[in-house]
Amino acid sequence: MGRAKKVVLAYSGGVDTSVCIPYLKQEWGVEEVITLAADLGQGDELEPIRQKALNSGASVSLVANATERFIADYAFPALKANALYENRYPLSTALARPLIAKLLVEAAEEYGADAVAHGCTGKGNDQVRFDVSIAALNPNLKVLAPAREWGMSREQTIAYGEKCGIPSPVKKSSPYSVDLNLLGRSIEAGPLEDPWVEPLEEVYALTKAIENTPNEPEYIEIGFDRGSPVSIDGEALNPVSLITKLNQLVGNHGIGRIDMVENRLVGIKSREIYEVPALSVLIQAHRELESLTLTGDVTQYKRGIEETYSKIVYNGLWYSPLKAALDAFIEQTQARVSGTIRIKLFKGNATMVGRKSDYSLYDMDLATYGEDDLFDHKAAEGFIYVWGLPTRVWSQRNR
Q1: What is the CA angle 280-94-57, rounded to 5?
Q2: Which candidate, 16, 223, 309, 371, has a CA 20 to 30 Å from the CA of 37?
Q3: What is the number of alpha carbons within 13 Å of residue 278 lying toward its C-beta?
Q4: Confidence of residue 57 (pLDDT cuts 50, 70, 90)
Q5: What is the CATH classification number for the domain harbouring 117?
Q6: Where's the Arginosuccinate synthase C-terminal domain (predicted)?
C-alpha cells in the first residue's frame, strides 16, 4: 500500500484511535495527522476528546456536530424502509458509518489530505463500511487501517501508546466493547462472547429492567408525515428531539433490547446486544401505518425490497447504485404514509392499539359485518370460480 503525507483519521478518543496518531507518523511516515471526531448524539464530552487528539500528536483536531444529519439523512430513510437486518437489528450502528465516511472525505478535501484512516480491526463489519463508502465518495483517496495491520494485543497497544506519551486508560476498562449514538447502543465482547451466557443488567443503559418499569401502561401517539415521524402526542418535534424524547419514554418501559447471534459480512457469527428503544418502536409504528395506507400488493412487494435494503446497508453499500434505486422506490411508496399511530407501552412491550390517517384505505362500510355492509356478497361466487379455475383443472387432470 502506498503511504500518505497528510491523513484525516476518524477519531473516538479510545486507545486504538489515539495510538493510530503516533503509529501513522512513526511507522508509516505520515507527516501530518488531522483527527475528526463525529458527534452523533452519543452524549460524550467532546472537548476533552478533541484535546486528547492534539496531545497525542494531531496537527488539527476537528469535531463534527452531525446529529441532525445522522437522523434526517440516514436514520429516517432507513425507517421508511423498515430496515431490520436479519429481521431483528435496526442498523443503529451501521447507519452511522456512511455518515462518518462522508465527513472524513469532506475533511480530506477541505484540508488537502491524500488519505483517510480509521481504527477498525480486520474481522468487523465497520472496516467494510468505511472502506467501501470512502471509495464510492472519492475513489482517489487512500484508506489506511493501522489497527488491521499492526498485530498488537490490547496490552501491547496500550504499552506502545505509553511509550509515545499517551496515558493508559485510568479506570479498569470494562470487558465490553460498546458503540453509542443517538439511535442506541451496541454491546459485544467480554462474557457476551459465550452465546449461552445471559447478559448481566450492567450491560444496559437506555432501557430499564422489566421489574423496575412502571406498573401502569402508558399510551403515546406518534404522528407521521410521508413516512417520517414528526410528532409525539400532538407536539411537533424536530428529528433529534423526537428520537431523544422517544428513547426516554420507551426505555422507561424496558422496550428495545435485542440479544442476537448475527452473521457478519466477513463470514463469522457474532453475538450482539443492542439497545434501540426509539427505533424499535418507530419501525413497528411505521409498518402499522403502511398497513393502513398502502395497497396490499405494494406492502407485500416492499417487504422483499426491505430485506435487500437492510442487507446492503449492513454490508456497507449505502453509496451504491442499487441503494439509490431502492431509495427511489421506497420514497415513491411514502407519499401517503401520513397519519397517527397509538401505542401502549407496558412491561417490555409496545403494542399498536390505534391507527388513523386521512389516506386510510380501510373502508368501514366494506369491512363491517353489521347492517351497513356494502360488500356485494353475490359477487364472491363468480370470483371464487375464476380464481380457483387453474386448481380445479389441475386436480381433474391429476386425479
Answers
A1: 130
A2: 309
A3: 25
A4: very high
A5: 3.40.50.620
A6: 176-394
16 classed as catalytic:
yes
- As given in the structure block, the three cell numbers for residue 203 are 450491560
Mark whether 245 and 346 lie in a shared domain.
yes
Total domains, the chain: 3
Q: 10 Å Cβ neighbour count for 32?
A: 18
**Domain termination site, one of 163, 186, 206:** 163
Residues 139 and 56 in one domain: yes
**Does residue 211 share a domain with residue 137?**
no
Handedness of CA 103, 106, 111, 116 (dihedral sign): positive
Q: 2: pLDDT confidence band, cut at 50, 70 and 90?
A: low
User: Which candidate in 59, 177, 291, 320 is catalytic?
Assistant: 177
Q: Rounded mean pLDDT of 361-387?
A: 86
pLDDT tens readout for residues 330-362: 999 999 999 999 999 999 999 999 999 999 999
Asked if residue 326 belongs to a domain, the reply is: no
Q: What percent of the chain is modeled with pLDDT above 90? A: 79
Q: How many residues does the structure list for the chain?
A: 399
- Is residue 126 among the annotated active site residues? yes
Say which DSSP state 37 is in. Answer: E
Residue 121 assigned as binding residue: yes
Q: Tell me the mean pLDDT in the region 45-52.
A: 89
Q: At 171, is the pLDDT very low, low, confident or very high (cuts 50, 70, 90)?
A: low
Q: Which of 97, 185, 257, 355 is catalytic?
A: 97
Strands 349-356 and 257-263: what pairing? unpaired
Cα Rg of the chain, angstroms: 25
State the average pLDDT over residues 184-212. Answer: 94
* Average pLDDT of the segment spanning 119-141: 91
Mean pLDDT for 10-36 is 92
Question: What does the block give as the cell for 253?
Answer: 418501559
> Using CB atoms within 10 A of its CB, is residue 194 exposed (0-12), middle (13-18) or buried (19+)?
exposed
Q: Is 316 annotated as a binding residue?
A: no
Same domain, 203 and 351: yes
Burial of 103 (0-12, 13-18, 19+ CB in 10 A): buried
The region of weakest confidence among 64-73, 149-158, 228-237 is: 149-158
DSSP class of 197: S
* 239: containing domain: 177-294+337-356
177 as an active site residue: the answer is yes
